[in-house]
């Protein structure tokens, strides 16, 4: 591959990184008064990066000597990441303007984090994996604690940093073991070493540590402990970002490592994935029942949904990988829509409201907002005819076709348990006595994004199944 083609393969990352540096200079020169303009410029950069995914360079294959892979799988994951990141930027100015805490660095940090996520999903080497993951994480630590005068935000950033450092250490130890016992850090080399020499004890330990480090990034049990506290303490736009784009990047990275690097050891890593999947489904469903803060509830919801997505990966087939990407696509629409509704929860003084009790009687005071939030809750629960039912059906179908019918049944039972706390929110909005009124909002951007998200997860979403299925299957086959 020539140098120009190699460089063209990483155009999305070049657009975002160069744009982030330029916008950082603008932020330093103009200060926070330029934050809104910088935010829209960042959104434009995400649009440009998305457009650059179209065409031959974005599917050029192996680049930078095997360190980077530009294929259909990476392109699909990056598109989801860029959409989620752009929405996270668009919803921030309205929320931060009410507290006067909007900083010009916010969109720049999301740009840098998205750059790291792009490197993660295109990684063809354990070192590229680590560099991308750390770039994403370092920006995320700052975002979690960006409201410096808010004790909860500072606490969230500190917890995220300490536990993230622990996870990075576990991941690095796994990488060192894999390198020591295979003699390479490239996914193709590890794949060949396992296929030729078998799964030695050292490689097995390295595999376990690598998957443990990645499990932290997707909030899978037993490495979920940071999620509720960080989701609750971080500013709501930041929480919406954490719940969407990094989840897609980490899940796509785990899929790539499992299939490309550890393909011959599928029977070994499948046991880890199945345990983590079922544990995440159970804990996410049970622990959410007693929550009184809606952001903590959605934190456990994200753990629960990660468990369902992992069922598709446990299948270990192209159909299973395609179902994982389908799940993450619909999950983004449901999660961002839910957080957009939460952002509109403010008391008459403009202070954010996060308690579930504050939603009491919302259907009478804010019927449109209540209807939208009810749609997102029903869809997260996987209740037909809303589109959230389809990705659960896809992962269960992939597991069944791979011979894991019992895993699909266990996931379906967990889905029934998890539906309780989603329905509890709907019951609170429609049947409880009205709570003090929430302030109305006339932010057209927030309203438009809520409408688009609701439309995506409505029964009309089923019309997109042919296109979505073809795209995800093409992306999945790029790994096999």
From TrEMBL:
Catalytic activity annotation: a quinone + NADH + 5 H(+)(in) = a quinol + NAD(+) + 4 H(+)(out)
Transmembrane feature ranges: 6-26, 38-60, 72-92, 104-123, 160-182, 202-226, 271-290, 297-315, 321-343, 369-390, 402-423
Major localization class: membrane
Example of a GO MF term: NADH dehydrogenase (quinone) (non-electrogenic) activity
Domain of life: Bacteria
This protein's UniProt keywords: Cell membrane, Membrane, NAD, Oxidoreductase, Quinone, Translocase, Transmembrane, Transmembrane helix, Transport, Ubiquinone
Presence of keyword GTP-binding: no
InterPro entries, sorted: NADH-Q_OxRdtase_suN/2, ND/Mrp_TM
Subcellular location: Cell membrane; Endomembrane system; Membrane
Domain named NADH:quinone oxidoreductase/Mrp antiporter transmembrane: residues: 123-417
Membrane topology note: Multi-pass membrane protein
Pfam family, one: Proton_antipo_M
Its EC number(s): 7.1.1.-
Enzyme class: translocase
Matches recorded under HAMAP family: NDH1_NuoN_1
Family: Belongs to the complex I subunit 2 family.
NCBIfam families named among the record's database cross-references: NDH_I_N, PRK05777.1-3
Role summary: NDH-1 shuttles electrons from NADH, via FMN and iron-sulfur (Fe-S) centers, to quinones in the respiratory chain. The immediate electron acceptor for the enzyme in this species is believed to be ubiquinone. Couples the redox reaction to proton translocation (for every two electrons transferred, four hydrogen ions are translocated across the cytoplasmic membrane), and thus conserves the redox energy in a proton gradient.
Subunit and interaction comment: NDH-1 is composed of 14 different subunits. Subunits NuoA, H, J, K, L, M, N constitute the membrane sector of the complex.
Protein name per Swiss-Prot or TrEMBL: NADH-quinone oxidoreductase subunit N
């Amino acid at each position: 591959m020539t140098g120009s083609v190699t460089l063209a393969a990483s155009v999305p990352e070049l657009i975002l990184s160069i744009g982030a540096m330029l916008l950082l200079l603008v932020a330093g020169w103009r200060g926070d008064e330029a934050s809104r303009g910088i935010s829209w410029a960042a959104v434009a950069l995400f649009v440009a990066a998305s457009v650059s995914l179209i065409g031959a360079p974005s599917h050029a294959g192996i680049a930078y000597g095997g360190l980077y892979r530009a294929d259909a799988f990476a392109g699909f994951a990056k598109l989801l990441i860029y959409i989620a990141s752009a929405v996270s930027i668009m919803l921030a100015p309205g929320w931060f303007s009410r507290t006067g805490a909007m900083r010009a660095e916010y969109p720049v940090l999301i740009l840098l984090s998205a750059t790291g996520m792009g490197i993660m999903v295109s990684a063809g080497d354990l070192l590229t994996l680590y560099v991308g993951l750390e770039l994403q994480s370092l920006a995320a630590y700052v975002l979690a604690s960006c409201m410096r005068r808010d004790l909860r935000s500072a606490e969230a950033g500190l917890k995220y940093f300490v536990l993230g450092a622990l996870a990075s250490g576990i991941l690095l130890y796994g990488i060192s073991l894999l390198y020591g016992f295979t003699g390479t850090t490239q996914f193709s080399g590890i794949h060949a070493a396992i296929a030729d020499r078998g799964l030695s004890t050292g490689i097995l330990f390295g595999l376990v540590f690598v998957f443990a480090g990645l499990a932290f990034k997707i909030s899978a049990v037993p490495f979920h402990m940071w999620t509720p506290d960080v989701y609750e303490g971080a500013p709501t736009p930041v929480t919406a970002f954490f719940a969407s784009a990094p989840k897609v990047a980490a899940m796509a990275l785990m899929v790539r490592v499992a299939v490309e690097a550890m393909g011959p050891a599928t029977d070994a890593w499948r046991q880890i994935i199945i345990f983590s999947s079922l544990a995440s489904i159970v804990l996410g469903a049970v622990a959410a029942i007693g929550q009184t803060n809606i952001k903590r509830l959605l934190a456990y919801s994200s753990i629960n949904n990660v468990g369902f997505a992992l069922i598709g990966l446990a299948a270990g087939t192209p159909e299973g990988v395609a179902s994982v990407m389908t799940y993450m696509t619909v999950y983004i629409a449901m999660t961002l829509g839910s957080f957009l509704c939460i952002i509109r929860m403010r008391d008459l003084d403009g202070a954010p409201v996060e308690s579930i009790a504050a939603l009491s009687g919302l259907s009478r005071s804010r019927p449109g907002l209540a209807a939208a939030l009810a749609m997102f809750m029903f869809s997260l629960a996987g209740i037909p005819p809303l589109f959230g039912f389809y990705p659960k059906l896809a992962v269960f179908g992939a597991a069944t076709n791979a011979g894991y019918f019992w895993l699909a049944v266990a996931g379906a039972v967990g889905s029934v348990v998890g539906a309780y706390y989603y329905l509890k929110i709907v019951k609170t909005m429609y049947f409880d006595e009205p709570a003090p009124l929430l302030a109305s909002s006339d932010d057209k951007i927030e309203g438009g994004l809520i409408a688009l998200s609701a439309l995506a997860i409505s029964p009309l979403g089923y019309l997109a199944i042919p296109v979505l299925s073809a795209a995800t299957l093409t992306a999945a086959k790029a790994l096999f």
